[in-house]
Structures are given as structure tokens and as C-alpha cells.
Amino acid sequence: MTIRPNVLQMVPYSPGKPIDEVKRELGLERVIKLASNENPLGPSPKAVEAVSMMLTQMHLYPDGAAFQLREALAQKFNLPMRQVVVGNGSDEIIHLLGQIFLEKGSDEIIVGDPSFARYDAAAGLADCVLTKVPLTPDMRLDLVGMAKAVGPNTKLIFIANPNNPTGTMVSRQEVDALIASIPSDVVVVLDEAYFEFASGADDFPNSLDYVQRYSNVVGMRTFSKAYGLAGLRVGYAFVPEVIADAIDRAREPFNVNILAQAAAIAALNDEQYVRDTVELNRRGIETLESVFREVGGTPFSSHANFVMADIGRPAKPVFESLLKRGVIIRSGHVLGMPNCVRVSVGTDEGLEVFVEEFRTVMSS
After folding, report:
1. pLDDT at position 16, please?
2. Closest by alpha carbon to 216, among 182, 245, 248, 193?
3. Is 341 helix (H, G, I), strand (E, B) or coil?
4. Which uninterrupted H or E stretch holds 141?
């Protein structure tokens, strides 16, 4: 049998090591995971209650149109329901955007470098051109460079804002300039997975404003981070109607499961939980930035729920030493940033463990 060569050239996504796996491999009892940007508070209690009430209906197919979830999103964000789509995580929405826009091998996606790996996967699966634009010296997406890279075959520009893995943000003025300088048939995807952590910034470019003004902008968000539902996989997007129609034609019939829909509706209404999450995150960012500076590192300005820092030495040995001590972080060596580490915000107690072990490793 013959598998498409472009598929075999794709690199499988590498998630952070699971806690149980590290415990088994290293014989550890205490493991702190600060690698996957998960919500340290756990899921919203309202979401847990909603899932519990739905358990007896697991034998039923979910609502294929996710009507109640899309209605709740439309009401919360004051957008017509026909412009709201949901997916099995925002990963699926990225995949579907690739499916509906990329047709020929010469079609092009433009992304930052480094940025979220699933953009690369959309290009790889379509066997199209992937153009990567390096970050600016202050580790932010270079929107001027991305605009200059646009050519006659460019179909999609992905802007992760804040960017993953750096946590840095681009401003409203920068997004305005990019959109004004590119053809109207190039789709700009504003991926706001960390929206709740960044939206307080004065110059944050809220994707909703752009979707309402332009016919070529998609705003994408998730329930995985601030809403604490990473394990249930629910993403959503604000899109022009024509794109919503195309996604509806291309997606799987029941792409968001029955438990996920119930949990997302409940979590959406748990505003206190989100406020608590954002406050915990604020304290955590301060803690991480402080310890990185203490050891002579340079943290990048983060508007997400993690901090990436240049620690001034190879990161892989630091990652490995911390792993042996029961602390899981991300090493930048796999991202072409060999002296950088990325650490997710954890509970206050979890960060205390990290700080202690990190100081020990960095002083050895």
C-alpha cells in the first residue's frame, strides 16, 4: 500500500509527558506537571455537575449541530449564531480550515516561527507551501514580515495571540496594519486560545471586533485553558457565514461529544471560576518571571498561562534534571530555541516545588 509522501514527512505531535508515565519510569511518588498549559484549578465545579447529570445519556448521539452550545456562545459574545462554529478542540477547527481552503500544492499558509505546531500540520496534510516568518528580537510575531510574505497563492495566515510557545502578544495597531496591507481573499486566523489571560491588556486586538468588520477574519478560542476542559476537547470560532457553511459541510457529523457540550455550556456561565483562574495566573506569572530573573535568565513578556525564558544555558539537561526530580516542564530545544524553557502556571504549592527544584538544578 502507498501512503502519501507528505503524510510520512509530517512530525507527530509530541505532548508533555503524562504524570503517571513519569512516576512509572522514574519510580517517583510526587510529580508536578507544568508542561501543557492546563488549568491548575481543575475543571469548573459547574462543568463537573453538568457532566454528572449527563452521564446517563452517554448512549445517545450528541446534538450534531451543538445548538445549545452555539446559542450560549452567540448570546455571550453578541454574535449571530450562524457565525459560531464549534469543534473537537480548536485543533479540529485548524484542521478544517486547512481542508476547506487548501486545494493545490502551490497554496500557501503563513505562520510565525516558532508558533503553534498544529498550523504546520494543516499545511503538511494538504501538501501545500508552509512559509515560516521568524519572530522579532523581542520574541513576538512579526506581522510586518508576515504581510510582506503574502503572495498570489497565500490562503491562510495564522496569528496565535498570545503566541505559543513564547506567550508574547501583538497589538491592535499591528493587526490593523496587517489586514489593511493584504488582499481581502487571504484569510487571517486570530487564534486566541489564551484570550482570558490577555484580554485585559489595553491594546489587545479582540478577534470579535475584526470578524464583525471584515469578511476574511476568523477568531478562534478554546475551553481547554481558562475554562479547564482540556480533557473534553471543545474549541469554538467566530467566522463569516460563508466559512461557517463550509466548515459545517466538511466536519464530522458529531464532532463535539455530549459530555463536552454540557460541560462547556456550564463552564461558560461560571464567571467566578474564570476570575479565580485569571487571578491565580497573575500570581503565577509573577512567580515564574521572578525566579527566572533570579538565576540570570530572561523571561519573555507573557500574556498567557505560561512563561518562556532564555536561561542562558542548554535547556535539555535542565529539563532532564527537573524530570528526575518530579517536575515536568517544556524544553525549547525541540523548537529551535535550545537555551529556552517554557513553564506553565501551576497552583501556588506546585510553583513552590518548581522554584525550589529549579534553583537547585540551576546552581549545580
Report:
1. 72
2. 182
3. strand
4. none
One domain for residues 231 and 310: no
73 Cβ contact list (under 8 Å, min separation 6): 79, 84, 86, 236, 268
Peptide bond into 114 cis (omega under 30): yes
Question: Are 257 and 319 in the same domain?
Answer: no
Decide if 1 is inside a domain: no
Percent of the chain at pLDDT exceeding 70? 100
Instruction: Provide the pLDDT confidence category of residue 364 given band limits of 50, 70 and 90.
Output: confident
Q: Rounded to whole angstroms, how far apart are CA atoms 38 and 49?
A: 20
Separation of alpha carbons 160 and 330, rounded Å: 19
Please tell me the predicted confidence (pLDDT) of residue 254.
Answer: 97
Query: Which cell numbers in the block locate residue 330?
Result: 517544556
What is the Cα 195 distance to its own chain's centre?
A: 10
Does residue 78 lie in a domain region?
Answer: yes
The boundaries of the domain holding residue 293 are: 15-43+272-363
Tell the residue number behind the cell numbers 484580554, with chain if given. Answer: 199
